[in-house]
Design goal:
single chain; about 230 residues; two-stranded antiparallel sheet; about 5% strand; globular
């Protein structure tokens, strides 16, 4: 990890964020490799899980880029950082919405041939994306400080966590119907990160929390159900 120490110009907080995101990348790549065995089934829940894998991987890469750019004394880098942070929060909303769809399908089903119901579940996500994009003009949620070029929270930053938190609650309700105990850890990880993300603008651990959660889903739901089907 000596090369990380050479990145002293990005600051200790950004270096820690970079390490967490690198961990998330390796975890998700491992999950993608492992889940290929049952992704071939082509069921909706498998497609949703794969979508979450790709989005968490993209989120980690975007967040790593932001960590490298944050606070650099260059207005162009600051602008690029501002743009990619919109991508981060869009991915955040999409992952939470897809997570809700996954748990609904696992718990009660009925989404396989009902695109309208899927779209209805995702309506808050689409509304959230519009709000996030409006930040390009309003700077209400976050902005880049014109002096330090550092990522800075806006007055309405907390709004970005309302819709994801609602989806976490939906996940709690749905997961209680299938009751695999270990998957509660995933919901706990997401909930804790939502609270920390709201209270503390420091080290970014959102992608790695999602990555660990996906690993638990893989072990305790998806992979287990695949082998159960193979035994039938």
């Amino acid at each position: 990890m000596d090369w990380l120490m050479e990145l002293s110009y990005i600051g200790e907080t950004n270096r820690l964020s970079l390490m967490f995101n690198l961990a998330a990348v390796f975890i998700v790549i491992g999950i993608i490799w492992q889940t290929g065995i049952y992704r071939e089934r082509g069921r909706l829940e498998d497609k949703l899980f794969f979508m979450m894998e790709i989005m968490v991987l993209a989120m980690a890469i975007v967040d790593m880029s932001s960590s490298l750019m944050n606070g650099q004394d260059n207005p162009y880098i600051g602008t690029a950082n501002f743009v990619i942070n919109h991508g981060f929060f869009i991915l955040f909303a999409l992952i939470c919405g897809t997570l809700a769809l996954f748990f609904i399908q696992r718990a009660v089903g009925g989404l396989e041939d009902n695109k309208r119901k899927c779209l209805n579940v995702m309506i808050p996500v689409f509304a959230q994306i519009v709000l996030i994009l409006s930040n390009i003009l309003t700077r209400s949620f976050f902005y880049i400080d014109p002096v330090t070029y550092a990522y800075t929270r806006g007055s309405l930053y907390w709004v970005l966590y309302v819709v994801p938190f609602i989806y976490v609650l939906i996940g709690v309700i749905m997961i209680s119907r299938i009751n695999p105990v270990s998957v509660w850890l995933f919901l706990l990880l997401v909930a804790v990160r939502l609270v920390l993300g709201f209270l503390h603008n420091g080290v970014s651990s959102t992608p790695v929390c999602f990555a660990i959660g996906l690993a638990y889903i893989q072990i305790h739901i998806s992979l287990r159900s695949f082998y159960e089907e193979e035994k039938k």
